Give the backbone structure.
Amino acid sequence: MDLIYAEATPPGRGGVSIIRISGAGARRLAEHLAGALPRPRHAYLREIRDTDEILDRALVMWFEEGHSFTGEELAEIHLHGAPVIVRRLGQILTSRSLRLAEAGEFTRRAFLNGRMDLSEVEGLGDLLAAETEAQRRLALRVSSGELARKADHWRSLLIRAGALVESSVDFADEDVPEDVPGEVFELLAELRRDLKEQIAGYAAAERIRNGFEVAVIGPPNAGKSSLINRIARREVALVSDIAGTTRDIIELRLDIRGLAVTLLDTAGLRTSEDVVENLGIDRARTRAAGADLRLHLSPEGKKDDSLWQEGDILVATKSDLHKRAAGLPVSSLTSEGLDLLINQVFDTLSVRAASAALISHQRQLTALSEAYEGLAEVDNLPPELVAEAIRRTASSLDRLLGRIGAEDYLDVIFTSFCIGK
Ligand code: GDP
């Protein structure tokens, strides 16, 4: 693989700008720029120069092949954070035939060199994209290899089960087929339990990663836009007292105590003569029905029966004007009830988030579902077919970790990475 470089820190002015150089020959190049290199993984201050010109004084770190992020020879130069310095070093590197890395190329090399598996790569991508605490925590666990370690444990169960089955096949008398040892089914049952738990927790983990959707619904003039604006503490939706002004669904991203939440401001739910408005209403109802939670708003504290689902929250709006028996009283004018409402939303969603698994990507779900289904009804099979099911399950786990079938995913995964990662 050729020698690549990129700025690992965000472009622009800052305390330091880190340039990373990776590939065979990184060491020689770093020696040319910095003179004698420090001990591996130690940072020394060096003058960075190309021929006679001193470019900057910088911390230099150097990692040997097999002991770096990418698994290749890798050098880091911590320059002063001025774009002009970075630009000049970039020119020098280009003139020495180095190529600017593509988005995610360092991580791609780490994967190809066996430094990370595909679940860790996805976890790392999620960690870099994380905006809330729950996202950060989940992504850190996966990028640190927690899912990979589970998969290794599952593989060891399969290897043991496979060995037991093979021996029963090998020693079976031709006329009297040997039974599959009972331990095999215990091992596979343990694996199925684990897989089922992960599959069941996928939906919640996916929501942690992509955000829970909370739809704010209610008839026109119920106070939906006002409430959302109040929550956002800024104007995001058009507020007016003409019915039907909110024709499109407005989305507002929130961080509610660590949980990513998208509030959906739906069009006024009513029947209308206006075709465009009706389109908006249809869309709103579909989105609301599919959301994780609905806040049913109306001044009377009445719910929308056709959309009501267990766990939904009933809100009596404009509580500064009138008190209602039903629903949580909330006023967007005085902020009465607002904190209580947000607490209720958080409580509801955090209960759901608590069941989250480690898998949060469709790709991971597919691999684990395959593994799980491959073991269905294995108890009733003859040894040859049990052995076959075990092999198939093992290859589904290999797929999870990207040991096979990763090619289809790499481009998609790495386009979301930045250059320099
Ligand atoms: P939407 O159609 O459900 O989005 O309703 P809006 O948020 O546009 O509000 C409709 C009208 O009710 C506007 O005139 C708002 O100023 C008014 N309104 C909304 N919330 C409150 C509230 O809490 N108290 C009072 N007094 N008026 C409100």
